[in-house]
Amino acid sequence: MSDNRALQRVNILVNHILQSSPTSSSNLSLTREICLQYSPPELNESCVFDVKEMRKLLDGHDVVDRDWIYGLMTQSNLFNRKERGGKIFVSPDYNQTMEQQREITMKRIWYLLENGVFQGWLTESGPEAELRKLALLEVCGIYDHSVSIKVGVHFFLWGNAVKFFGTKRHHEKWLKSTEDYVVKGCFAMTELGHGSNVRGIETVTTYDPTTEEFVISTPCESAQKYWIGGAANHATHTIVFSQLHINGTNQGVHAFIAQIRDQDGNICPNIRIADCGHKIGLNGVDNGRIWFDNLRIPRENLLNAVADVSSDGKYVSAIKDPDQRFGAFMAPLTSGRVTIASSAIYSAKVGLATAIRYSLSRRAFSVTANGPEVLLLDYPSHQRRLLPLLAKTYAMSFAANELKMIYVKRTPETNKAIHVVSSGFKAVLTWHNMRTLQECREAVGGQGIKTENLVGQLKGEFDVQTTFEGDNNVLMQQVSKALFAEYVSCKKRNKPFKGLGLEHMNGSRPVLPTQLTSSTLRCSQFQTNVFCLRERDLLEQFTSEIAQLQGRGESREISFLQSHQLAEDLGKAFTEKAILQTILDAEAKLPAGSVKDVLGLVRSMYALISLEEDPSLLRYGYLSRENVGDVRREVSKLCGELRPHALALVTSFGIPDSFLSPIAFNWVEANAWSSV
Amino acid sequence: MSDNRALQRVNILVNHILQSSPTSSSNLSLTREICLQYSPPELNESCVFDVKEMRKLLDGHDVVDRDWIYGLMTQSNLFNRKERGGKIFVSPDYNQTMEQQREITMKRIWYLLENGVFQGWLTESGPEAELRKLALLEVCGIYDHSVSIKVGVHFFLWGNAVKFFGTKRHHEKWLKSTEDYVVKGCFAMTELGHGSNVRGIETVTTYDPTTEEFVISTPCESAQKYWIGGAANHATHTIVFSQLHINGTNQGVHAFIAQIRDQDGNICPNIRIADCGHKIGLNGVDNGRIWFDNLRIPRENLLNAVADVSSDGKYVSAIKDPDQRFGAFMAPLTSGRVTIASSAIYSAKVGLATAIRYSLSRRAFSVTANGPEVLLLDYPSHQRRLLPLLAKTYAMSFAANELKMIYVKRTPETNKAIHVVSSGFKAVLTWHNMRTLQECREAVGGQGIKTENLVGQLKGEFDVQTTFEGDNNVLMQQVSKALFAEYVSCKKRNKPFKGLGLEHMNGSRPVLPTQLTSSTLRCSQFQTNVFCLRERDLLEQFTSEIAQLQGRGESREISFLQSHQLAEDLGKAFTEKAILQTILDAEAKLPAGSVKDVLGLVRSMYALISLEEDPSLLRYGYLSRENVGDVRREVSKLCGELRPHALALVTSFGIPDSFLSPIAFNWVEANAWSSV
């Protein structure tokens, strides 16, 4: 087992400590000196690559601005600064009630506003301004998901809805005042009875030509607006999503602006508001419920970029097809999935940085009689738990950056691709975050249960991501349906595949070698080939199964439902391949050197752990039993090779110490009586 | 696809509703009547078996006493009764601060005490008394994990330690006063520096023959007692685990009784106590930290069932080997793993009852143009998410009951088997609970985020189970090491296997049919054969790999660490087979009839989903690719066949409505404005 460096390290350490401390077990505990001491991981771990350079790659953009806002938050007393073990930490006090968390979250946002953080967020445009905004939002979310969600609802849901669904009259009236928080916006789309299925919402708006007003009403309890962030306490205005009925015809879902509170915070007439109550996380966000009692709003409050109603009550839209109209309304909301995917990965980074730093200072059990205890991360099983998740987090960092880039550079032509990619990435990245946090929580043992240590708390804070802005399972089905449509369309028109990364299907089916050596397994071409083969074959299987079912008389919808397992496998295969491509692209751009070398190891770990974890490789015969044995052995080897870089890899996340938690540093001192 | 009954149901429903409501989509939302209505699942679902009989099987024992304590809690205002949608619910208010949750938890325990719940818990003995106690504790945990943990620490850790580690003098002095809560006990084993590795604790106790006292000290910060439930606020006494140094020789870990607070709640001299702080769950439990500053306790306070120190300071023990002595100290603690495993399954039941009831009243999307929305549980993918977890929960119910039975009937001879089985069951059942709750949380969408709806909150409340009383990964390794030792011992002595369920290895290797029909897959003999084959082969592979590594000069410990993946596969194979056996045994005892029939379906689902989810079947060639395709298809068929029984199966859990949550019932009414 010469390749298992970790165990060599254990053995060396054991010998070293046994030689230097010849005390017998019988009096081990008698002297104070041999009590457990904290030793900073930096003392024992080396770093072979430039951490700052790696950090720039991972953050991708606006590193200086990120550091600026990290600093802003650390300086203020509003961010719950506390000293633990001689270090300053900032993170919310999660022992506060919902009411307290909401108030302090709003105060934190005021502070950021006063310090100019939100300047230009709605009044500046272009890819650079958008990226900067995304970077600042990401850092808000690293401090506390409630801050980023509350800011996100105001700017990305309310603000962007005004910007994208509205026209000049709305922009002039609302954008600057939103940026200055003179109005506080919320976004009333979801109802008690309808979440992911927006088309089914039951709120009804009619038009009264005599007063030139729209009349919004909540016809029944299931139509109450639900989960509306900001509605319970702070928002003054909302976007209302509603069926628009004109002269007895339902024109489908449209968006309107309604004021719900006056500037003093009193709820407006014809509006009822209730609280959604205490949640398992995100208690800094005041989610509320809204009922509209024939609320009258001016005709101009229809956000009319897609469709309008004339003063005499005629419905006008350039888009005749209601489905396309609905799609146009939903398209700008993609920003939600972009920010969710990206923030999920930053959350995973906090978890991994904490768990890996702790595993480099915490010991448990010894492997020789009376020998010293072994560092957690020197156990092969502990490496196997954390290092593959670390590699995935790296790969998904690049994926999130790529998603942001295609989003900020979007054109009408790229809308479909953005929808598909953002759906897949949102689902896979948020599931990855939840899994990573759970593994990190267990890997740090009981310490993960303390909210102060964040790892466990983040699970509750980020859990909602797997179902909001589209249930992950529904999103994955949408990915597969889109691939299906693309496949059918290309085959029908006998045209080559173009877009969605399917171009590889124009070539011949990749042939994999029967024998997999270590160098083959680490070769990017081989990795790409397996991922392409899997995607291609699953797409073919899926379309063929759907065709069979339709051939037996089933409707297309029913056929999709029945083929859900193939659809899930395909959605995953598509997304994992797209992620692999992003880390390969990042690697390709680098000059030769240690950053590129280590990133190559990380990429191979990402590729091989994805194969190792996917039973479909064996199930559908892409790899033989011998092959998957080789993959598993290679993953173990990579664990050993990544182990020496673990500290540097999490340091490269660029998250300041103060945004991690006490167990990532001197947890003995942090728990000392002198700190009580 | 004639076997997919669920889709037939969808089609029938679609036709039914389309016929009965010929309104066109254009004015669907104009009339109030067609708004979404709650329809109780009971209206549409049939029940073909006797739910009461099934409930008796699942609960296994003390059904009447369970109902009594459910009733006690529902009657009292202390349990946070509230009305939602016309029904009464009881569950803690999780928006309370830690301090408030601790106080109300203690008050709830006083109430249970006053109502005689704890009568005989320490003063009565025998299997029946023990089972009754376990049943009552389980129901406490269904209300709130904090209540059961706080009661469990007092009775099962403090109380049982006095009972099992102590002798007559301790029993007379402490047992009755513990039962009456005159003393409030806690259990100081874990330290900041040592959790799962109890042997490594650093607290030191010496003996002073001049005063006939032990002197307990915390020699350094890492030796502070940590996570001690009850220590922060309420406990008056504690068991202290400490290294015992007699005349310069460390005799290993021993347990002592120390008073830490007087009856007025003042902390005693030479004791320092600090809080562990806010947690992601279990905030009703006052976890604290304790430092001992040369605390002097009478010689009689050594719990001396295993070893004693004479008045003149001589160490006396009938067990000479320190390892065996340590083992004797730990053995009675198995009760912790028994109660954890069992309560994990009741938590999963709360999650599943809620998610399945919700999925029988919540609709989303339609499968035909303008058609009605489909019930969540009529989607094949939703069935696939929840019904296999339901079947596993059933199987694990029987497993937990079996574990309790072997525990209450324990003899010195069964200690090893109990240790191995309880380790495996604790790990597998608690992981299953976490996974089930996560799936249920996502399956109910955003509603799972509200703490009032429990599903999401339970994740935080029960998360600690995967690492306390032994980290799950460590426990699984212990299972495999025990199997290894058994294997080596039998082979060396050329004796047949006896115990740990390994008897099947005395026979010939099972041969599986190459073609798997539906009836083969559902046959208990086939299922047993696959599970046995997998266990047998993995055990052989594991021992052979260890032998190879040792042959290359590695130590046994290092070899185990390197073979961790095979060890994990083996631990899982052992535990899953043991679980299968318990549901097969339960089924075998039943007379022919509908309960037996449905339980047979559930058992087949448990067996097949375990195979479907385990990649080692393909990896190691127990099943062919065609075989696993057959397994997957059979799981889908079973989903369709279990779907009609879903409501009855969760009703059989016997959990009163008031202990579930509003989304399990009329969630429209519960959210109505009239309820605000």
Short summary of the structure?
2 copies of one chain form a homodimer. Chain A is α+β, with helices and mostly antiparallel strands and 676 residues long.
**Mass-distribution shape of chain A:** globular
Determine the most extensive contact between two protein chains: A-B, 117 and 117 residues
Query: What structural class should be given to the helix and strand makeup of chain A?
Result: alpha+beta
Give the strand content of chain A: 5-15%
Q: Radius of gyration of chain A, rounded?
A: 27 Å
**Helicity of chain A, in percent?**
40-55%
Low-confidence stretches of chain A: 12-33
Mean pLDDT of chain A: 94
How many β-strands of chain A, per DSSP?
15
Could you describe the largest sheet of chain A, including whether it forms a barrel?
6 strands, mixed
- How far apart the termini of chain A lie comes to 47 Å
Oligomer: homodimer
| Count of helical stretches of chain A | 23
